Amino acid sequence: MIQTVFDILTIRKDFPILNRKVNGEPLVYLDNAATSQTPKRVIDTIVDYYSRYNANIHRGVHTLSQEATDAYEEARNKIQKHFNASESHEIIFTSGTTHAINLVASGFTSLLNKGDEIVVSALEHHSNIVPWQMLCERTGAVLRVIPMDLEGKLVMKEYHNLLNQNTKLVFCNHVSNALGTVNPIEEIITAAHKVGAAVLIDGAQAAPHIKADVQLLDVDFYVVSGHKMCGPTGVGILYGKEAWLKKLPPYQGGGEMIEEVTFEKTTYADLPHKFEAGTPNICGGIAFGAALDYMNGIGFNAIAQYEHELLEYATAQLLTIEGLKIYGTSTDKTAVVSFNIEGMHPYDIGSILDKLGVAVRTGHHCAQPIMDFYKIPGTVRASFSFYNTKEEIDILVAGVKRAKAMLE
Ligand SMILES: *Cc1c(COP(=O)(O)O)cnc(C)c1O
């Protein structure tokens, strides 16, 4: 039985969208790995910003600009505290994980040479593959891949074999969005540092469930998206160690990122502004801070424990369906169940579930190499959040049974 570690009914009241109906049925939102829903506190923060103190930041002498600047910088401080970065200027606001990864990949162009090696994992999201391939094309560096096994875990022995004096960068996600596997990033970081390689961890899928401590991890770069952790879309962060952020050249040129501009030479602003050209998503950054406040109010330990119970319950219930196969069976997983039913296309199952009000993801989940590994076109992915319930899982399972009966 699900043990309620917090008051789920009260939590659900915080999310207005959970009240709506889809195709005449109550919404059962199980696509949390794609984006999370937004609590009222975050929605209110957005409304409050545009209702009371919308202004451009860091430049105005007027009151509104000062209030907006203070709120934006306070959000940066909250994020710094949340991830335990030692300096607030090590937190760079970006539009999300993809932007943050591209910023780092672009910056490494001038730091890599032909023959240098970049290691990525087989479990990556496309946003953590393509920028490195582009970097390899620019520099002549070579991409190496840590293979995965049938359980959806990285083959760590092979990882250690891949590392050598030429390895300059290692990229891996903390949690796989397609399978939910939690990767052994401590081991990955320690081993990479032994050969002098820098490590970027894509925390987009981990951050809603696991509170990462960047100093404890000793990670060089850690990136997340606000929208996967109760914040709005269009905002995320790059955490980078100060020494690395000083070494990397700016990503985009423009306003805000300069100290002095003449046509002969421009000097760049200090961190974090060096990487924050142009007017940022001010409201988004402030709302991201509110989202962290909200989640920390519930507590990440309670969230992880409750979601784990949902995962175990969903896994057991789904496996009672004949012909259903789950991809990603690591014992260390977040609340993601990726599955197929023999002989049925994931898209058809997803469409029938939608008619029943159940939102799941179908397809390759931006991780085509994983699907190729299993030789499947895609999966149905149900991903749970702390505002989901056991009753919703029952509706999912009943829906999958119904889909199976219709498609047989
Ligand atoms: C969602 C996700 C991304 C991409 O995040 P965006 O917000 O679309 O930039 C990258 N990696 C993982 C593991 C993800 O889950």
Automatic annotation (TrEMBL):
Documented EC number(s): 2.8.1.7
Co-factor(s): pyridoxal 5'-phosphate
Keywords from the named record: Aminotransferase, Pyridoxal phosphate, Transferase
Stored InterPro entries: Aminotrans_V_dom (IPR000192), Aminotrans_V_PyrdxlP_BS (IPR020578), Cys_dSase_SufS (IPR010970), Cysteine_dSase (IPR016454), PyrdxlP-dep_Trfase (IPR015424), PyrdxlP-dep_Trfase_major (IPR015421), PyrdxlP-dep_Trfase_small (IPR015422)
Domain of life: Bacteria
Transferase listed as a keyword: yes
Top-level EC class: transferase
Recorded catalytic activity of this chain's protein: (sulfur carrier)-H + L-cysteine = (sulfur carrier)-SH + L-alanine
SUPFAM superfamilies according to UniProt: PLP-dependent transferases
Pfam families associated with the record: Aminotran_5
A GO molecular function held by the record: transaminase activity
Secretion signal span: none
Coiled coil: none
Domain Aminotransferase class V residue range list: 28-396
Function summary: Catalyzes the removal of elemental sulfur and selenium atoms from L-cysteine, L-cystine, L-selenocysteine, and L-selenocystine to produce L-alanine.
Family label: Belongs to the class-V pyridoxal-phosphate-dependent aminotransferase family. Csd subfamily.
Annotated protein name in UniProt: Cysteine desulfurase
UniProt organism field: Arenibacter antarcticus
Phylogenetic lineage: Bacteria, Pseudomonadati, Bacteroidota, Flavobacteriia, Flavobacteriales
